[in-house]
Amino acid sequence: MIGRKCVVALWVLIAVSAPALAATEAQYLAVFMEGKKIGHAVHTRAEAGGEVTTSDDVSITISRLGFPVTIQMMETSVETTAGRPLRFESTQQLAAMANMKVAGIIKDGVVVDVTSTSMGAEQKSTMPWPAGAVMAEGLRLLSLKKGLTTGTEYTVDIFSPGVMQALNAKVTIGETKAVDLLGRVVKLTEVTTILSMPGAGQMTSASYVDAELRALKSTMPIAGMQVEMVDCPKEFALGSNDVLDLIDKMFVKSPEPIENVGSALSITYTLNPGKGANFTIPSTDNQTAKRLSDGKISLVIKPVTVSSGGTFPYKGSDPRLLEAVKPTRFLQSDDKRIVELARKAVGDTKDAVEAVRRIESFVARYIDNKSMSVGYASAVEVVESRQGDCSEFAVLTAALCRAVGIPAQVVVGIAYVEDFAGLQGFGGHAWAQAYVGADEKGENGKWIGLDAAFRSGGRGGYDAGHIALAVGNGDPGDFFNMATALGQFKIEKIQVQKAM
User: Fold this and answer.
1) Which of 146, 205, 249, 307 is the most exposed place for a label (fewest CB within 10 A)?
2) pTM, rounded to two decimals
3) 6-17 tens-digit pLDDT
């Protein structure tokens, strides 16, 4: 999960700092995190037959508890010379797992025909094109039009195939200053971009561009860490990388130990945001976030307990719940392999609560290789490999629930651990939640947490030690809020309520 989140943020950074390159020219950049070189990015642009093809190829290698994880992603957009979007493609190689490919054709700037392919499973769908959104060439042309006059401001919606969403960007042209490019100091103009995703806070990046609007250096804070991309010779960009272990970087300190966290009825956390912090803590059936008068956040985690009740499949009309039973590119719940496993896991029960508990236990046993070497896999890939960490447990759990018609989502956030590689506190984590207990109309149900990874490790599963930072379909865009939130707050106080 950690590696995947970093790559998503890097894709966003590349999208908003796309260099203004001449036809067929390629630009090589070294990618640094916390001062260590972890990979490279290659940006190319070619013009032919009235079309402009722009590609970004990123490869990064990080370490998790000594396990190196290499993640590669390539994103290509095709537009007219006037910047009108025509089609796009995104290919993702996530560590040991197979390629995941998403391609889209934009029809009349209104509808997108999307094809997703993973492990031989192909899904076709349609989605509305975000009105007014641009891709690489459209952004390049707009940047050229606006120029580099200090104080210039403008906004634009940027569609990224990597996250399959349009991000709103507020761009501000700053001062010209001397910038160090790996020992080569040049005068460049600072361009600040504030990215916003609905319900996911903001992320600020700074790019340093030359007179031709070539971005020669870009920086962005991700989960409290600094990421940089620096223009450099091809040989250095593609050369060897340093070793950076991110496990300890993803931990949030606990002000005190929490004894037997699984037995807590509820836990109230007081979060203290950093100066200028801008992030969102979602409220769900299991947690409630409230901003206090002093700017701090009171977060109450009270796990929903439902012992039985509710039928499946879901037959209600709630649009959000109907969306949560559909197959997606990471939750391929209509794939025959997923359907067969779901039926095996559920057995003959007709009770929705019992069904999701059986699925949770089944996934806890099914993934028998708890490997940290997996970047981020789809449900079908997990079925085939039977390996992964918390995120693989989460996507498989959610996919199996959806396969039998139970609304389910993937949740990402942090969870309390007493000892993980010598660390104590709240570490980056993923789990699932399912909607159960509804009546015949599909109403009056509740979302309950499911944590097959913790259950597999001997912990009871979901509990009040879980803090959700984002909820969704397990798609890359869901990680945006986690990237913006981590590093922006401290847990100042913990109040535990236990059974009498």
Assistant:
1) 307
2) 0.81
3) 444 555 545 445
